């Protein structure tokens, strides 16, 4: 491939998540072909995000405002706090529009392998919020992995002397899930946790 | 998802080829998290491409120069012309470094379904090049699809009165290809075209 700037663009795009060199080449070619209509718009959109988006000082969400619209809204239930790993989880829950409380973003989960300790997570801020805000229920919506479970145990141990209801998300067969596509762990859990009709 | 600018960035990224909304969200989140290190660099790279890359007036390649380094090089064989569908094919052939001639990019192949006629392709320019340059061999490296075959037939019919050797790429089992993964068409072709040892 000739052309230094083209190669540089392919390399920059290839470093983004879910992309490799092959798809980076396809995207670069698309950008080159439609460059009058796409490149200036993409630059402007990136610049807008760079200039305007900040981190919410309360929950850790990204928005043009801090506090973010969720933390600032009087329509949300500020007594219920949902603890999540990352902003993508907030986006997923908000898309469904089913949750009416507020959030706290940890920024990760504890991990012995990756060396992530409580100090690396947004936990101090969580304890301050629990002191200062009138929170009555905490939902631990962390991933159903070993690290996620350990983090949930750690946080619930910090909360055990407080008068707060702590819950986690239900586990089992997902809606529309076919049994023969489920792993053994999920099947065992769904059997153990079976509900009487 | 809250934040107008974030949503706009997700939508812009999701329109790129090989990406959907889910991967666009992952990429946006990555850009937000590493924005100090990534976003200014990405904007600069896009701006460089936008400002500097042009289309080669001879072959249709993209480069910062026109004529492009391939057309301008005295180390290439300017008597051999490889006709390709798109710039990605040029990139693929150049990566291998096996071809030493020059290129002509058609910008597509004839297609009755998509309504692509000879006027939509870079064919007039091809005929002018054949008149003006001293071309002795043309390699039709177009895709091995029905539309590709039709385009090859069309171009070779235009060339039949000229003293030019016209060839197409060999077809058969790819290197490392396992027979039980090949489609019936390829197997039949590989059998019909078998080479005596």
Portion of residues within helices of chain A? 40-55%
Q: Name the biggest interface.
A: A-B, 48 and 48 residues
Report strand % of chain A: 5-15%
Number of separate helices of chain A: 8
Q: How many DSSP-defined strands of chain A?
A: 6
- Distance between the ends of chain A: 64 Å
* CATH fold type of the largest domain in chain A: Dna Topoisomerase Vi A Subunit, Chain: A, domain 2
For the record, the CATH architecture of the largest domain in chain A stands as 3-Layer(aba) Sandwich
Looking at this protein, list some descriptive labels.
8 helices; Helicase, Ruva Protein, domain 3; homodimer; 4-stranded parallel sheet; 2 domains; Dna Topoisomerase Vi A Subunit, Chain: A, domain 2; alpha/beta; 13% strand
């Amino acid at each position: 491939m000739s052309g230094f700037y083209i190669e540089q663009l392919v390399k920059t795009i290839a470093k983004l998540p879910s992309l490799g060199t092959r798809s980076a080449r396809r995207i670069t070619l698309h950008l080159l072909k439609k460059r009058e209509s796409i490149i200036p718009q993409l630059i402007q959109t990136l610049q807008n995000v760079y200039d305007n988006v900040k981190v919410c000082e309360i929950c850790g969400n990204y928005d043009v405002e801090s506090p973010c619209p969720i933390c600032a809204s009087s329509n949300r239930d500020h007594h219920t706090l949902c603890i999540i790993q990352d902003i993508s989880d907030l986006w997923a829950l908000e898309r469904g529009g089913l949750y009416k409380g507020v959030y706290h973003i940890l920024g990760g989960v504890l991990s012995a392998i990756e060396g992530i300790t409580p100090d690396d997570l947004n936990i101090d801020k969580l304890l301050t919020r629990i002191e200062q805000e009138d929170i009555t229920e905490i939902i631990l919506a962390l991933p159903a992995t070993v690290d996620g479970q350990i983090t949930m145990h750690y946080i619930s141990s910090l909360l055990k002397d407080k008068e707060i209801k702590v819950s986690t998300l239900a586990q089992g067969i997902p809606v529309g899930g076919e049994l023969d596509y489920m792993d053994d762990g999920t099947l065992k859990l769904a059997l153990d946790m079976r509900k009487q009709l």
